[in-house]
Design goal:
Oligomer: single chain
Largest sheet: 7 strands, mixed
Shape: globular
Helix content: 40-55%
Number of helices: 16
Structural class: alpha/beta
Strand content: 15-25%
CATH topology of the largest domain: Rossmann fold
Strand order of the largest sheet: 9-8-7-6-10-11-12
């Protein structure tokens, strides 16, 4: 039996109205996977594998009430989308941002299914968070909010059930408050949350993991072409952990990083960043628009994205849909040869079509930015055994798993003529593992 792409997308759209990000994610995935199913696994149509896969196993929506520093009562909405437990307990981050809604979290949880499957670690997929905005909040306000958030979430998570982590707006400070409240409510110290501080159950190189893993993947792309990252010009968007540590690792590998960005615009330094400049950026936090006050070689391009700057490699590390079709055309015209995603779905559908049609190397987030969940999985292993691995040990394991993900992408993504479609490879490679597990476990 044959699955028709247009019919399936129509079905998804009708079922998930007013959820554009989720529909976009499923559409991008289906375009690669449906032809593969029709050719290799026609029985999956009868088993309704795709229809079952796009439906979350559970969605939890709850009220969060908390008191601000002026003794005003504040109300936010909390979510946990438990998408798939087919190959392991639910695993995925928490995002605190006013942009959080059900469509965004469902798309992130859907992408997480295949990202987690690609790692080879037994992890299911989830995503959650709140429309709470941590910007301009005091530490006490953030603590009270996190405690109120956990007062509901704790009922639905556990070290063998659902293991949250951080995401946008949820760093080690927030993880600390969340974990502390969970520990108090449950009266147990467990590995229920990853991204913890090193002194209380966290793993070495967890903050660096996504950025480092991204560069290990890019390094493998160039190794495939008998090349290296030495002297390659790299533009990076974002100014958080992923962007910062991607820049750090790129510099270590000999590349020339010329940009970072925030919501105000782009920091551009044509001379390139170095370790001293990165220390200054770390001190500034996300206020990188002040960087040119310290280095005359740099300029801040107000309300501009980095994608008009000529580069060899572009690393979008900010947020979803930040690279439009126009941006993609600019990148190709300016000589970009590789786009690797440090964020989740930062390229619009039209943008990644431009990259693939131009024959440049395009590494999707579900493969290239898997380093974070890899080290989260390693943190879970350390918590379970009571061990603490060294930096080098964790880094070696991260490199090994990123190489395994890369090989899966090349296995399923190499096309006639030798072009490697990493998006296709990641979609099919992640899907087949989950689909076969679904088939083995029956209709549940």
């Amino acid at each position: 039996m044959t699955i028709h792409l247009k019919d399936f997308i129509h079905y998804v759209t009708e079922l998930n109205q007013n959820q554009p990000e989720f529909i976009q994610s499923v559409s991008n995935f289906s375009e690669d996977v449906i032809p593969f199913i029709n050719e290799q696994y026609p029985n999956f149509e009868k088993l309704k594998i795709l229809e079952r896969l796009i439906e979350p196993e559970r969605i939890i929506i709850f009220k969060i009430t908390w008191m601000d520093d002026l003794n005003n009562i504040q109300i936010n909405r909390g979510y946990r989308v438990q998408m798939s437990s087919i190959i392991g307990p639910y695993k995925g981050g928490l995002r605190f941002s006013p942009t959080v809604n059900l469509s965004v979290l469902k798309f992130l949880a859907f992408e997480q299914i295949f990202k987690n499957a690609l790692t080879g670690i037994s992890l299911g997929a989830a995503k959650g968070g709140s429309d709470f905005n941590p910007k301009n909040k005091t530490d006490n306000e953030i603590m009270r909010f996190c405690q109120s958030f956990m007062n509901e979430l704790y009922r639905h998570i556990g070290s063998q059930t659902d293991i949250p982590a951080g995401d946008m707006g949820v760093g080690q400070r927030e993880i600390g408050y969340l974990f502390g409240q969970y520990k108090k409510l449950r009266n147990q110290f467990s590995g229920v949350i990853t991204g913890k501080g090193k002194a209380w159950g966290g793993s070495n190189i967890r903050p660096e993991a996504t950025g480092y893993g991204l560069l290990y993947f890019v390094e493998l792309i160039y190794k495939e072409q008998n090349s290296t990252l030495k002297n390659k010009i790299i533009t990076i968007s974002g100014a958080g952990n992923v962007a910062y540590y991607a820049a750090e690792k790129a510099i270590q590998l000999g590349a020339k990083v010329v940009s970072l960005s925030n919501s105000k615009g782009t920091l551009y330094d044509p001379e390139g960043l170095d370790s001293n400049k990165l220390k200054r950026i770390a001190a500034l936090g996300k206020d990188i628009d002040e960087f040119p006050l310290h280095y005359s070689s740099a300029q801040f391009l107000t309300k501009q994205k980095p994608w008009s700057i000529p580069c060899d490699i572009a690393l979008p590390c900010a947020t979803e849909n930040e690279i439009t079709e126009k941006d993609a055309l600019n990148l190709v015209a300016n000589g970009c040869k590789c786009v690797a995603e440090g964020a989740n779905m930062p390229s619009t559908r039209e943008a990644f079509k431009v990259f693939i049609n131009a024959g440049i190397n395009y590494a999707p987030g579900k493969a290239a930015n898997a380093g974070g969940v890899v080290v989260s999985g390693l943190e879970m292993s350390q918590n379970a055994t009571g061990l603490r691995w060294t930096n080098d040990n964790v880094d070696d394991k991260l490199k090994g798993i990123m190489e395994s993900i890369y090989k899966t992408c090349t296995k399923y993504g190499t096309e006639k003529g030798g072009y490697i479609n990493y998006l296709k490879g990641a979609n099919i490679g992640g899907f087949i593992k989950v689909a076969q597990a679904m088939q083995a476990q029956g209709i549940v």
